[in-house]
Amino acid sequence: KQWYQRRVAITAGGWGKSTKRGEEKYTENQNIEGNMISYGLDTLYLGSHSADFSKPLLREGPLFDVIITDPPYGIREASLKIGNKSNVQQSQHTLSEQFLELLNFAARSLVVGGRLVYWLPVIRDLYSPSSVPQHPSLNLKYNCEQIFSRKSSRRLLVMLKTREVSPGDSAFIPGDDSCLQYRELYFGKN
Fold it and tell me: 13, 140, 147, 157: which is deepest, by most CB within 10 A?
């Protein structure tokens, strides 16, 4: 298949605080569509999807060849999980829970051979490869570090779906997940 014919899921926030100095909130054109237009790629843009992975809005089953996402780390604002329909309150959502739900969603929603690409923020001195979330249907292909400071970084992870999900399969963190307590450690360390 040509790359432009592939089915792509783009998960996007965009309603939080802006990363630009002097701006409180994102402006109307600070989004994926605005970026695609500015690069002259708007004819290839299919759209984006923003949702809570614990309550997917899409039908179950393999839909996508690739899922590319940059989940919120909880630095500009805390990650939130939306309650059920009768309880529309927002509750704190740990980073570990968020990434486990992302991997479960990807394992269900990618075709075999599809890829999940995402950023994982870590505290560098607590990180180990066993801190990376895993799923029985996904194999880690690439793990590249982007250093923010002496103490923190993020890892670009690329996972390949190698088989369909079996009953009972679920995402897990094989080792210590303390490096994924990013918000607490980021604000707690000097």
Answer: 157
| Beta strands 8-10 and 64-69, pairing class | parallel
What is the spatial distance between Cα 185 and Cα 188, in angstroms, rounded to a whole number?
A: 5
- pTM given for the model: 0.72
Q: Both tokens of residue 170?
A: 């679920």
Pair of tokens at residue 31: 């989004």
Pick the closest to residue 122 from 153, 93, 97, 157 (CA basis). Answer: 153
Which segments within the chain are labelled E, that is strand? 8-10, 64-69, 80-82, 90-92, 110-123, 138-147, 152-161
pLDDT tens profile 28-72? 666 777 777 888 877 777 776 666 655 656 677 888 888 888 876
Instruction: Tell me if residue 64 falls in helix, strand or coil.
Output: strand
